[in-house]
Amino acid sequence: MKAVVLGRAPGRPGAEVVDLPVPDAGPGELLVRMSACGLCGTDIEKLKGEYTASAPSLGHEAVGVVAKTGRSVAGFREGDRVFPHHHVACGECYFCRRRSETMCAEYRKSNIKPGGFSEFFVVPAWNVARGGVLKIPPDMDLELASLIEPVACCVRALDACSVAGGDSVLVAGAGPVGLSHAILLRSLGAEVIVSDVSKPRLEFARSIGAGAVLDASDPGVVLKARELASGRGVDVAIVASGSPKALTQALGAVRKGGKLCLFGIPPKGSMLEYDLSDVYNADISIVPSYGATEKETPKAVQALAARKSEFRSLITHRFRIAEFGAAVSAASSGEAMKVLITA
Ligand SMILES: [Zn+2]
Ligand SMILES: [Zn+2]
Predict the structure, then answer these.
(1) Assigned domain for 157 exists
(2) What is the 249 CA–ligand 1 centroid distance (Å)?
(3) Ligand nearest to the CA of 154
(4) Which ligand is nearest to the CA of 89?
């Protein structure tokens, strides 16, 4: 079978398309034939050697069809269409009991093998036994279902910021994740402002119903965002970009007592240049959100089912496993919105 794996060059590993034997499903495991797997910004960071987690593997937004069930697997059979969550927390440790499940030591240890950009992959028994595998509703196509993981991460972030109907929210960054936030925010009844430096991306934001869009390269962008929110500033700003500049602008746009959600991953070594006394005096909470859990993935399925056409419109490019290099180029150039690798 064809699979994309990380190269071994230190510093800038890159991707290699390799031929591997089809793995077998051991006890408690599932063997899944991949149908679609989204290319995430973190995959590109891993290729550049910039990702900040240890032992990275590629492709974590995979969905597919169960090809084989390991011994003593209950509740799944061959032919089931599934979303297997790649990381699953233990649910019992200090962090899990305090709602920091994505900080659980087991969370990042569990992963699909050899990764999502592979014709077949194995879901570990740990993930299967702890509810990490969802069956995809019959009326949901597998491409749309490949958005479950990234949308679940957005759901967790919005929950962490307690966004409610009527809130004004700035989404800084109009990539696939920023626009997923925008779609979810509209469903919640929030007023959505989207900022980005790319005009085509802002057009895209309009097409999925953003109430207002702002050019992030305009020096007056912070003031404009505040004005759009009755002059007082937005209740919540979501930084859906790794750019420290987007973060600075978002902080400036938040109202007194509001929240800034750190969602996009800043490159390692990023420093924030901002007057901390302003953060203190304006009583702004900075809320990072990493990953998602089994609490959010079912909510993501519901959100996708409720806004099928908007979410589906985010998927602009599809490539086969062998075309992985072209997929990365399309995603890196900014010409694509969401890029999928399909079987
Ligand atoms: Zn991702
Ligand atoms: Zn735990």
Answers:
(1) no
(2) 24
(3) 1
(4) 2
Question: What region does 28 belong to: left with phi over 0, alpha with psi -120 to 50, or beta?
Answer: left
Residues whose CB is less than 8 angstroms from the CB of residue 313 and which lie 6 or more positions away in sequence, other chains included: 207, 208
Compute the distance from residue 105 Cα to the ligand 2 centre, in Å: 6
pTM for the full model? 0.96
Question: For the ranges 153-167, 217-231, 267-281, 314-328, which has the lowest average pLDDT?
Answer: 267-281
Q: Which residue segment(s) compose the domain that 140 sits in?
A: 2-152+292-342
What per-residue confidence (pLDDT) applies to 14? 83
134 and 11 within one domain: yes
Q: Are residues 20 and 39 in the same domain?
A: yes
The β-bridge relationship of strands 81-84 and 168-172 is unpaired
The verdict on residue 7 lying in a domain is: yes
Closest ligand to 91 CA? 2
Of the candidates 184, 119, 115, 198, the one whose C-alpha atom is nearest the C-alpha of residue 154 is 184
- pLDDT tens readout for residues 284-334: 999 999 999 999 999 999 999 999 999 999 999 999 999 999 999 999 988
Q: How far is the CA of 236 from the centre of ligand 1 (A)?
A: 22
Provide the CATH number for the domain around residue 320: 3.90.180.10
Cα of 41 from ligand 1 centre, angstroms? 7
Same domain? 232 vs 281? yes
What is the sign of the dihedral through the CA atoms of 30, 31, 35 and 38?
A: positive
pLDDT of 129 > 80? The answer is yes
Ligand at shortest distance from the CA of 90: 2
